[in-house]
Amino acid sequence: MSRATAIARREFNSYFYSPIAYVVIAAFLIASGFAFYQDFVPGQAAAMRNTFNWMVWFLVFLTPILSMGLLSQEWATGTIETLMTAPVTDTDVVVGKFLGNFGLLVVMLLPTLLYVVLLAIYGRPDLGPIFSGYLGILLTGALFVAVGLFCSSLTRSQIVAVVLAILILCLATVVPYMIRVSVANLRPFFLKLLDQAVYRRYSDFSRGVLDSGNIIFFLAATAVFLFLTTKVLESRRWK
C-alpha cells in the first residue's frame, strides 16, 4: 500500500505542474457557482440540491479531462516501461493513479464548502441532505475517475481516452435521464432499468436519502472498473 501511496502522491503533485488542472478546477467552480446562485434565493429553503444535481453533469465532462493522461500519457511517452520494471505491482499502479486523481477531485470540491458557510450565515440549512449530497458527489466522482482511468489504459491517445470516457459516462448518466424525462408511458421493465442508472441513484443522495444499496452500487462499480484496468495492464505487460 505504501507503493500505491507513493504513486498517488506523485500523480497528485504532477497536476499542479500543468495548466489543465487549474483550468478544469476554475471551470468547475465557476459553473457550480452559477448553480448555487439558483439555490441562494431569499425565501427559498436553505439547501444545495440544485447545486449537487448540476455538479454531476459537470463531472461527466470534466473528470475525463483530468484522467485522460493517467495511463495513456505513460504509453505515449514510454515512461510506462520504467514504471512497469519498478518494484510495484499492477494493482499498485492502478490504485496509486486512482487515488492521485481522486485526491484532485476532493481538492476541487473543497472550495464549494463556502456555499455551506453562506447558507449557515443567511439561513438555517438542514445539514443532513448537504452531507449526503457531498457523499454522493464523492462516490459518483470516484466512479467517474475509475471509468476515466480504464479508458486511459486502453489507448496511447489522450483525445481518444477522453472521448471514450465521456461517451461511457453519458450512456450511464445523461442518456437514461433524458429518456426518463422525455419519453412518456414507459413500460415498468424499462422504468426499473432506468432506475439503475448513475444519475437516478445519485439523486437519492442529493435529496438526503442514504440508501445502502446505492452506496454499494457506486463502490462495486468503481471496483469493477479498477479491476478491469488492472487486467488491461496485465495483458499489456506480457505483450
Calculate the mean pLDDT score and round it: 83
- The gyration radius over C-alpha positions equals 19 Å
Amount of beta strand:
under 5%
Please state the overall shape, judged from the principal axes of the Cα atoms: globular
Say how many strands there are: 0
The level of helicity is over 70%
> Low-confidence parts lasting 5 or more residues at pLDDT below 50?
none
Number of helices: 12
Largest sheet, in brief, is: none
Multimer state: single chain
Label the structural class: mainly alpha
Give the termini separation. Answer: 26 Å
Order of helices and strands: HHHHHHHHHHHH
Describe this structure in words.
It is a single chain. With 239 residues, this protein is mainly α. The protein is built from 12 helices and no strands. It has helices spanning 2-15, 19-39, 49-67, 72-77, 79-85, 90-109, 113-122, 127-154, 158-182, 188-194, 198-206, 212-237. α2 (19-39) runs antiparallel to α3, α3 packs antiparallel against α9 and α3 (49-67) crosses α11. 36% of the residues are buried.
How are the elements arranged and paired?
Blueprint (H helix, E strand, L loop, with lengths): L1 H14 L3 H21 L9 H19 L4 H6 L1 H7 L4 H20 L3 H10 L4 H28 L3 H25 L5 H7 L3 H9 L5 H26 L2
Which descriptors apply to this entry?
239 residues, mainly alpha, 12 helices, 80% helix
